[in-house]
Amino acid sequence: MRRIIGLMLRVAGPYRDRFVSSIRDSVIGSLAQAGAYACMLPILYELSRPQVDAAAAWRWFAVFAACYAVEAVFRCREIGFQYTEWAQVIESIRLRLGDRLRRMPLRELERRATGDLTTVVGGNAVNAALGVSAVALVFLQMVTVPVVLIVVFLAVDWRLGLTLAVVTPLAVPFVRRVQRISGRGFRRVDQADADAASRIVEYVQGLPVFKATGQVGESSVRLQRALHEQTRHQAESQTQAALPALYAAAAVQVGVVAVAAVGTALVLGADLTVPVLVAVVVGAVRFAEPLATATTLTAMFEITDAAVERVVEVLDTEPMEADPDARITRFDAEFDHVEFAYTDAPVLRGVSFTVAARSFTALVGPSGSGKTTVTKLLTRYADPDAGTVRIGGVDLRTVDPSEIYRHVSVVFQDVYLFDDTIRANIAMARPDATDAEVEAAARAANVHGFVERLPHGYDTRVGEIGGALSGGERQRISIARAILKDAPIVLLDEPTAALDTESEVAVQQAIDALVADRTVIVIAHRLSTVVGADQILVLADGRIIERGRHAELLAEGGRYARMWEAQTRARHWRVGAETARVGSDNGGSDG
Known about the structure:
The chain is α/β, with parallel strands linked by helices. The protein is built from 20 helices and 10 strands.
């Protein structure tokens, strides 16, 4: 529990002082409650004497009432934190998680499954906040009251106190057993919940593919397996802890019976009065109640423990270091002997090149050659393992990613749109943009034409991930977003590669509007789109093997020239194949 409270203090964040204050209030309230129970003994003792001392009885009753008054005050303060600031604690946890995710290296972010992060920010954050607001306080009450009552019993008769002190620890091994089982079980359950959440996200996003392959409903093997594992772990964690919990509760009840038996023997031996025995038995029952509850609430402690652990794990992720004063004022770029690996396999090996401001650089090469990694490092997806990446002469290791993104627009081949209106998706680049500015960006990106045909125009919702729009329409919206942002550096990951001819023409026109008078780096699969580049970098196996303009590289007769020749032949082959098909359809063979 000390470890849990320590973690909770981390999770409480800006509410740490209030949490500590609520713990103090809980301890004082619990001591006052135990004091009130203890006052029952002298009250009953005074009332059971042959000559009742009314003044003494009233004095003890006054102490009894004062204890309850003190408890009420401190319980109100404790509950005030639990019920008025619990929602703020959840919000604070989620905001801090969001900030840490923002500053987390994207390499680390991609390592985590979507469902895993959803579970942390969703259910784990709630359970962690529950722990901050309630679990620790409940635990303190369950410990404080029995400890005080043991002291009182020792004061009344050492034999009663000793009986309770000896018998009660019999429950401890069983409680510890419940704790260990629940701890392991709920961590497995928590991981199973995260896995199931990931599979649900995967199922929803990939539903068209699953339908096409007949893997929907009960045939969805990956989802069904994850849900089965989730159910299995939940059932096992409950079943395995049931018997030890029952034994622990039984041990506590044995303690109550033992105190009643010793007390009865003392009454028969004239060492204790009947009213005091009644008070002792009532106190013993009150003593047993929180201990029995502790066994039941062990599962809650472990749920909280697992949740807090996962939240703290994210909060403890090493953020990207940055100089808050580092600023980018020029818009040239440089790679200086950069090396980078995702795992053990190197992706970039000693890559060096410069990109002049307001120039056009193309990256070409086979899949896996490191092209996309170059663009990711320029947005500080991660820091290079060796060498330096600079923008405007500034080492990106010193620059906050938000400062980089202020000056860089990125358009990827796979477009992600949010389930909102077209207007809202474009305006994400500049939330303060006016409707006129949004429309101007949309016109420049060839968006306005198809938007005019929609029933709700710019207020049309695009669906989840933009599913209500075609690929070309989604791509043009992403380019409109980049145009509205008006960043001086533009990174393009071949946004026309997966489009049909008509969409490609419209998107290419939008790109021409985007890249005008900017520093442009494009990953090119179709070499015809980069013929006019100021420099073309040919990558293979993580190295730059050729560099130069289009004509220069063709003259060298190397890798680029062979790629150009292959693509040229492929284009001619498609035309020839189409001509042959048409000729065959017309019944001719040599027109």
